[in-house]
Amino acid sequence: MSVARPLLCLVTDRRASSRPLPEVVAGAVRGGVDWVQVREKDLAGAPLLALCEEIAAAARRVRPGVRVLVNRRCDVALAAGLDGVHLGFDAVPAPAARALLGPGRLLGASSHAAGELDAEARAALSYAQLAPIFTPLSKSATRPALGLAVLRDAARSGLPLLAQGGIDAENAAACIRAGAAGVCVTGAILLAPDPAAAAASLRRAIDRAARAPAASGR
Q1: Full-prediction pTM beyond 0.85?
Q2: What domains can be seen in the chain, in order of their start residue?
Q3: What value does the CA radius of gyration of the chain take, rounded to a whole number of Å?
Q4: How far apart are CA 202 and CA 10, in angstroms?
Q5: 187 to each of 34, 66, 129, how far by Cα in Å?
Q6: Ordered mean pLDDT values, 10 residues apiece, the chain (218 residues)
């Protein structure tokens, strides 16, 4: 997967916002979100499918090229016509997921350390997420923050790496300068009074960082 500019991915949590999730997602896409990852692990198949269809429709009305993924559920991704799947630690192995999805869809996986994904998994993946880089904004921390040094080390692997955990407009640029191909956020957008404005601030921050490669590693 080639990345032309830093990716801004919204990872959903419908409990983090008082407004309907499709409405919030549409605002975030308007503000500059490239990918939407539907992560609603408590929903069973039918309600998750319905929510994914609503979110995809809302996001694509704003920008037809936005990519919509679902956490863990290859069956839901195929049924809803989504762009890919993000695998958590309780999902099917990456090679099996790739066989189900075919070559054209995005496939990502979570990691909590540099080098955690084996060669077989990496060969099947489009990208990986590393978390938590900082202390999460939308939930209680369950593990220590990794920090930018670990992110910098993990980003050297060659597989596009998205930084996640505690990322906002103030620290997103540092993640890009450390080598991340993009950032994944939840609280910075869903907890904001204006999701579109929050997404736009993040978009500006990561784009500025990408235009200043000489700052990397400083």
Answers
A1: yes
A2: 7-215 (3.20.20.70)
A3: 16
A4: 11
A5: 17, 20, 17
A6: 88 94 98 98 96 98 98 97 92 94 97 89 96 85 87 92 96 97 97 97 97 55
